[in-house]
Amino acid sequence: MKKKGIIIFSLFIIILFSCATDNNKKTISREFAQKNYHRGMYYLERGFIYSAENEFLTAVRLDPNNPKIYLALGRTYHLQTRLDLSEALFEEALKIDPNFIEARFYLGSLYLDMKEWNKALKEFNIAKKDEDFIYRPSVYNNLGLVYMRLGEKKKAFEAFKKVIELAPNSKLADSSRKYLEKEN
CATH no. for residue 128? Predict the structure, then answer.
């Protein structure tokens, strides 16, 4: 019975796509891509990384011009420590939308993990300029970590102080306070 339902649904999709105009096909593809994207995010948030990967791969095939999908797939590969693929996907998201600050943040975080300090610094410095970016305290925290690795303690302390200013009651602020106390 379940198999029959799948066959009927598949036929419906085939008929739907064959009757649609090119614009309608693109709209339908984007709608299906969004469903795959949202399912992928659901899986990713719950730690089902390989299920998330499959959903994002399907979504990117259906909507290859959506930078959010490339970002999500890049995050998935980052979690799998497939760093080269992750980097390529974050860069693809930025090719589509150079102002996609979230992609800059995750690319900077990837470079931080790869110990590519100067590349990380570049991405975080771009990301910090967006005052509305929700992860801005994390950007400054990561900047502090990069500056510490580069031996630039004064800049690191400034970044950690900014974390405390932006999110005084957060775990990041607690961590920043520890860095500041340890060095004083």
Answer: 1.25.40
